Fold:
Amino acid sequence: LGGMAESTLSEETLVQSWEVSGTSTPISSLSFRLTTRLGHEAEGYLLYDEPYSTSWFRSYELLSPYTSGSNLRREGLARLETQLQGEPWGFRISPEVSYENTGEIDGLQRTVEKILLEIPFRFRKDPYDPGISLTLSYLRQGASTRSVSRYGDFLSDFHTVGDAVQDQTYFYRSYPFYELVTPGRWSKFTDDTRGFSSAEYISQVGTSFSRSYGSLWHDLFLPSQAEGTLKKTLTRANDTVTSTHQVDLAAINSALNLFGRAGAYPVTSLWFTDEYQLKNTLSLLRKEEESSWDWEFSTEQKVSLFGEKEDKAELEHMLYMENTEQYSYWGTLTVSYTWRRELQRDFGLSLLQSARENGAYYLNSEKTEFRYENKEGWKTYLVVGHETALTFPTHGYIKMELNLGLGFEEDYSGLAPGYRLLLGLAFGISAHFIF
Structure:
């Protein structure tokens, strides 16, 4: 059992929080954790110009809410987590109720009730093997917004939360999983929220997968992490009810130390070790009254090659595509090379001579970045840059950088040639010292 009270002040805005939590473990594999939290925010708090001893005692006043300010916000949360750990499967369930009151600002309080169920599986050869993890999850969440008095307090907030929980009957009456395929206009949500100005219900099922990866060739092609979710959102705004379906997929491939001198398959001596990463995401979204799906897709690829000391070469590409209001895409391709060179000449300067004797060195970097996009017209940019940093071990660095940019943008003026040419040059010197 533990508790905490905290107050922070930033530009006359006072943020206070109180938390009490307790954990019970009747047996080693079963645990319960109850968490309750309250928050209070107010503007207009001023510090007094008074002796330290007086201000020290006054600080204890902040153990209670500061209600004399303006634009008050209050929030609260209660969560009970139950977890059963076992091999090869376990069990976690977390019911939760939270709210946010902005009555003094807009006369509203939003209440959210949520329950998350997770069933994790783990398959491994021994306790020290990370093995393969698979988690199945189910989430349901209901939310509603009510009009409240601007002169409320925590006690009146709790009464509003109680009324909101009782009125969100769809949260309890909805059939798990079946609700994901029931048409929104035929669901009980429409009847149960009739007369509400604002309400929302979310149901979601998901699965996630992870495995250990390393220096095997198939790590390049088999995901080390993957997850997928299917979500349905019912929303009421006065007399309008909408239903939205969403599918999210993501996968990450990772591998390291494959083809360099120290790799599992040493095919070249150009580098010492290497790392590879690929990440793909896909999101599909459709409103029930529409026939087509909106979608977003992203892919990121990164290759890092490491040489001696701090020598490193990197190739990174990112591409984002979406088809929502219109089809568009944008991306970047970056190639960089960093290498270290010892400080050879001091040019007769005692400062450089001392730095060379203490291990100072140059860290150089070359970088080329190509950016392209087609959102509201096409745009293409090419930036080439060089950077040199005179680095003093444990003491900082002095850095100089130079960048040259060239760009083309579509021109809608109707004049020839139909595009704009952009040129840019940037030069900078910076320093960072540690004392």
In short: The radius of gyration is 29 Å.
